[in-house]
Amino acid sequence: MWISKRTDYATRAVLALAIADNRQPMKLGELAARTAVPVSVLEQVMPALRSAGIVRSERGPAGGYRLNRPPAEITLERVVRLFQGQLAPIGCATRRHPDPCPMSVACSLRFVWEEIRDATISVLGRTTFADLSERAQGPWREPALIGVAPPASAEG
Fold first, then answer.
1. CB burial of residue 14 (10 Å; 0-12, 13-18, 19+)
2. Crossing angle of helices 5-20 and 28-35, rounded to 10°
3. What is the mean pLDDT of each run of 10 residues along the chain (156 residues)?
4. What is the DSSP annotation of 55-114?
5. Which of 18, 40, 69, 87 could cross-link with 133 by S-S, CB 3.0 to 4.6 Å?
6. CA–CA separation, 100 vs 66, rounded Å?
């Protein structure tokens, strides 16, 4: 399965909001800086997340975006499906309206594709943004600082 940039960016945005723990709404510019996602892309992604009930927006000078539900109630599957659609690796392995198979009725490949689909759905479905936030082990690190050694201490 190949995840699109929009899906990647959406999952980063939801994770940043989960890590922020809904203390206060996060402005689009701050969300963009924390996730290394262009504001122009977040302007497209966030309305889709809002329409799906994953985030909510608050207006005004102190406004911004928050999660609409606790992170433990938002699965990675829900966000990925919103932007990716079907999670089957091939059209003949979708659960609803599979593409007709040009091979024989007992195509042995389809069973493998269905196993891959089911494994993908299982992993995404059991992974919540609370899990991902916990794995992050702390506040979101600024993208520019990732991989940069901490400054040497003045002692020494």
1. buried
2. 110
3. 90 94 88 93 96 94 93 96 83 72 68 86 94 79 52 47
4. EEEE-STT-EEEESS-GGG-BHHHHHHHHH----SSGGG-SSSPPPPSS-TT-HHHHHHH
5. 18
6. 42
- Beta-carbon contacts of residue 109 (< 8 Å; ≥ 6 apart): 103
Residue with tokens 């945005």: 13
Q: Enter the tokens of residue 47.
A: 């309305």
Residue type, 70: P
Q: What amino acid occupies position 22?
A: N
